[in-house]
Amino acid sequence: MNANWTWDLSSYFTDFASAERQEFEVALERDLTALLARAEALRAFDAEPWEALVLGYEELAKRLSHLGSYIGCLAAADGSNESYSLAEGRVADLRSRAERVLVELRRGFAAPSDEEFGQFCARPALAKAGYALGRLRKEGRESMAAGEEGVAAELSNFGIFGWGRLYDAVSGRLTFEMQYPDGRSEVLPVAQRRSLMADSDRKVREAAFRRGNEAWSSVTHILAPALNHIVGTRHCLNQRRGGLHFLDQAMHGAGVSRKTIDAMFEAVSDRIEIPRRGLRLKARMMGLEAISWFDLEAPFPIKGQTRVDFDRGVELVRTAFGRAYPRLQQHFDAMLSKRWIEAEPTKTKRPGAFCTGSDVTDETRVFMTFQGSLGDVSTLAHEVGHAFHAEVLAGSRVLERQYPMTLAETASTFAQAVLSEGLLSDSSLSVSDRALLLGEAVSEGAAFLLDVPTRFYFEKAFYEERLRGEVTPSRLSELMVEAQQKQFGSALSRGAEDPLFWASKLHFFIPDLSFYNFPYTFGFLLSRGMYALFKQQGSEFLPRYEHFLRLSGSALAHEVAMQSLGEDIESPAFWAGAIDTLIAPTNELEALFDSGKLNSR
Ligand SMILES: [Zn+2]
Predict the structure, then answer these.
(1) Which of 46, 138, 292, 591 is the most buried (most CB within 10 A)?
(2) How high is the pLDDT of residue 79?
(3) For 243, phi and psi rounded to 5 degrees?
(4) CA of residue 381 to ligand 1 center, whole Å
């Protein structure tokens, strides 16, 4: 087959400059402004007008997703086009106005009694929106009085968001003097350190790490107060909002119960030697006693990887999907024939990959740059998985589709697992490609079960200490090293930790999101656990899996899992099964390495 690798966006609008597209935007802005004014004027809780407001919000959110998705596609494909980036700015402004309608809904829903609100949610026009509406009510009830929230929101621009911008300003200008092994040196922005720390030459990684940390240590006296003020603001607001615990707030945002996350981390602790063993194997393959922090991102030393063209990449994905999950293959075929995928490498493209879609047409688009590695083939399967999730949700109402970050990566990683399994069962796969795929699973195990939990435990310890007062830069570094040692154990060389990770990692300084990282461990293990169920139950599992995806925006994660899969994810057993799926790839990679068949460097 000859797959087309440029997308067709004409079903959104004939053209960016078309009158149709411009009128769509003008009408959307007009209607959104009117809806917001109506919302702000609403006072006492009365079912009729508040229901109309919910329906009005959903209608405009649909239209906004249509326009936003279209502009996002155009801007990603041509990063230098100024009209597209201006349009992106206008879309961001429309989004913030839609967000303000939600603020009004929270205010309105906080007022009625439980009984009155229950009756409201039972209205036929609001069928299946109950969970989303209940979340808004909970957020409304945990808010301060409207006037106080207004002042807090206004001041946040000079407070918590200001500290976030200060971080961006300091880190954006920070440079370090990179000393290459050949004696050459150059001054680089710290943003370039990350790719140097993934270099295959250990001396390059080490120099980038040490020189980079010298630069970071020169600004800790600015960054530590910024971090203290960000977390201090959160503590202050949580206390004012009825004494909310900082973890409960993060769990609510992620759509999970505390019990679920506790069960997950308990299973990770109980089975911590599984990912540690994977990391020790990586060290051995690299000829090291143990890993240093600057080795974590290094590639596995495996040579002779296959390159494939797009047609071959498509064929690999199709075959793997077709063998295990025919409906997924049909979906992929339909996307290809409708030209919903953009993969051609061009000079104007932005980096990265994503899946986007319109709630008006229920169409999706996948954006990526296909350059021929097996990693690119895997990215293709990943993004098509996202598109499949959207297809399963097609026709559902807007308030049913707002699944949390914890469940957002289920369908994508599941599709990747189908591909990887398909490739591994192909006897024509070369030894190095096989090792590469196994190495990917081992690396992911280390990233999601060692690195990400380290960040969680560090943040938790810091948040607790911050309740008692400001935490100094040296104490932050101590907490960081303690968390790294505890999680990595002997897989990480003593003294080779990264004490300044709290400063160099942007995630800790994001003003509008706390505990940014744990949903990644959750998503990784959830999809591995589900894939393990698929292997046990065979194709009978697939309708349950699709039911899971359909419910993903309709309840807390453990309720979704119970209703669709009959699995109790509030118990460590489910997570233990998911972690155990890493044993086989680690064993096989080790056997391949020990057999001497690997052409490693
Ligand atoms: Zn994704």
Answers:
(1) 292
(2) 83
(3) 75, 30
(4) 10
Determine whether 216 is exposed, middle or buried from the number of CB atoms within 10 Å of its CB (0-12, 13-18, 19+): buried
**Predicted model pTM:** 0.91
Write down the domain spans for the chain.
19-142, 250-303+441-601, 310-429
Q: In which band, very low, low, confident or very high, does the pLDDT at 600 lie, cut at 50, 70 and 90?
A: low
Cα 386 to averaged position of ligand 1 atoms, centre (Å) = 7
Distance 518 CA to ligand 1 centre (A): 15
Residue 419's alpha-carbon distances to 423, 437, 579, in angstroms, are 6, 10, 19
Q: Are strands 354-357 and 341-342 parallel, antiparallel or unpaired?
A: unpaired
What average pLDDT does the segment 397-409 reach?
Answer: 92
Quick one: fold of 250-303+441-601? Neurolysin; domain 3 (1.10.1370)
* CA 305 to centroid of ligand 1, rounded, Å: 24
For residue 516, the one-letter residue type is Y
Measured in residues, the chain has a length of 601
Pair 4, 339: CB distance under 8 Å: yes
Annotation: CATH topology of 19-142: Butyryl-CoA Dehydrogenase, subunit A; domain 3 (1.20.140)
Question: Measured in angstroms, how far is the CA atom of residue 272 from the centroid of ligand 1?
Answer: 25
How far does residue 418's CA lie from ligand 1's centre (Å)?
A: 15
Q: What is the DSSP string of 6-55?
A: S---TTT-S-TTSHHHHHHHHHHHHHHHHHHHHHHH--S--HHHHHHHHH
> 310-429, what's its fold?
Collagenase (Catalytic Domain) (3.40.390)
Is residue 439 classed exposed, middle or buried when 0-12, 13-18 and 19+ CB atoms within 10 A define those classes?
buried
Flag whether pLDDT at 147 surpasses 90.
no
Q: Residue 3 above 80 pLDDT? A: no
Per-residue confidence band for 598, with pLDDT thresholds at 50, 70 and 90:
confident
Sign for the pseudo-dihedral over CA of 31, 32, 37, 39? positive
Residue-wise pLDDT for 279-337, tens only, equals 999 999 999 989 999 999 998 888 877 889 999 999 999 999 999 999 999 999 999 99
